[in-house]
Amino acid sequence: MTDTAADPRRLVPRTDAVLADPRLAAAAQRLGRNLVKRAVVAAQKRARRGEIPPDAVAGTALDALPATATGLRPVLNATGVLLHTNLGRAPLSAAAREALALAAGTCDVELDLTTGGRGRRGAAAIDALLAAVPGAGAAHLVNNGAAALALVAGTLAVGREIVVSRGELVEIGDSFRIPDLLTAAGARLREVGTTNRVHPGDYADAITDETAFVLKVHPSNFTITGFTRAVGLPELAALGVPVVADIGSGLLQPHPLLPGEPDAATALAQGATLVTASGDKLLGGPQAGLLLGSPGVGADLVQRIRRHPLARAMRVDKLTLAAFEATLRGPSPPTRVALDADAAGLRVRAEALAARLASAGVEAEAVDSASTVGGGGAPGVVLPSAAVALPERFAAALRRGEPAVLGHLENGRCLLDLRALPPEADDTIADAVLAAHRGL
Ligand SMILES: *Cc1c(COP(=O)(O)O)cnc(C)c1O
């Protein structure tokens, strides 16, 4: 027979009683009652299993509550990959974050406050984009780069042909493929050339009355080297049909460190009729798809595309419009700052951080490392960087910490690469490593 009076399960407080704890009541105001109740029920279960004492239920529930009502947790990107798809690509600038907060309330996204009439949605974001690419005649924004391409194909090429090189049939990521996207939008593909080589004549031979446009896709996540040949935009532009350039990463102007990365201004100057790109890669803004048209023909096509019924299904929200405009008008976004950071400065930060950790007994050392832009662009480009090297066992502890820090493993060590992190993050990194050290 069990002694029920001594059974701790009898002493576990009731849910309502725990929820009445002022700290949990305050949390329920902020996070919602359901979320708090779930944490309480989980703590009660632990108490019934004897894992925590019955009087610790409220405190345990409180500790388990997330900082906000989202399940998303902030992660410090110490991987050395500037645009990490699993971490949400480009982090937003402070200016873009402020704009987001403003737009989160009610705002004049489609209202002209002077006249009281309807205003053109997103006009300010489009103006900012056209100011950044003066060579464009018109621009439009959609949800992402894939949407921009799908909308172009769905407007201009349903039942018609898109001429594209076999060397540019790119899988973007997570098994999504540009050729599938184009055919799903209703277009037929007319593939030309081979994986490694295509000639101007291949394109010329493929052009018929069925041709909607020639598509040039930037191979943004791989390189082909050796016996290769691609056809540039100036030659494609001479073919007499519209040329659509999917430049991928969203560089608006050439970048000196990334000579192989196409940019919107150059693509238009070289004769592209339309340019598509992403907003959250090297542009450094929120997830968005950019569509830019050359003055004249391209601008007319942008207007057609904007009025297509599917354009409404790919429309960006006010948050994106606000963050995108602020990214372009505000100071350099973090992605750009990280790209331009000089390696010597990163090394100084790594030395200081390693010295600070070593003095606290952590086995830490400053090392040279190699950063990359990531799946978002500039394949094959290595950016010299610096990192703090820790024993490998730190990796999991840092990843599970608060805030989470994601490093990368190399030769049995956990490297915390500083290129993708602003200098202000160094204190947080130090605290996170020290916390992990105490827990190991
Ligand atoms: C990233 C990329 C895309 C897809 O853009 P999303 O914004 O991810 O939808 C399309 N084309 C190229 C060349 C890319 O690099």
From TrEMBL:
Biological source species: Pseudonocardia hispaniensis
Cofactors that this protein relies on: pyridoxal 5'-phosphate
Keywords, comma-separated and alphabetical: Cytoplasm, Protein biosynthesis, Pyridoxal phosphate, Selenium, Transferase
PANTHER family, per the entry: L-SERYL-TRNA(SEC) SELENIUM TRANSFERASE
Organism placement in taxonomy: Bacteria, Bacillati, Actinomycetota, Actinomycetes, Pseudonocardiales
UniProt similarity note: Belongs to the SelA family.
Name of the protein: L-seryl-tRNA(Sec) selenium transferase
Entry keyword annotation includes Iron: no
Protein purpose: Converts seryl-tRNA(Sec) to selenocysteinyl-tRNA(Sec) required for selenoprotein biosynthesis.
Top EC class of this enzyme: transferase
Major localization listed first in the record, in broad terms: cytoplasm
Source superkingdom: Bacteria
Domain L-seryl-tRNA selenium transferase N-terminal residues, every copy: 9-48
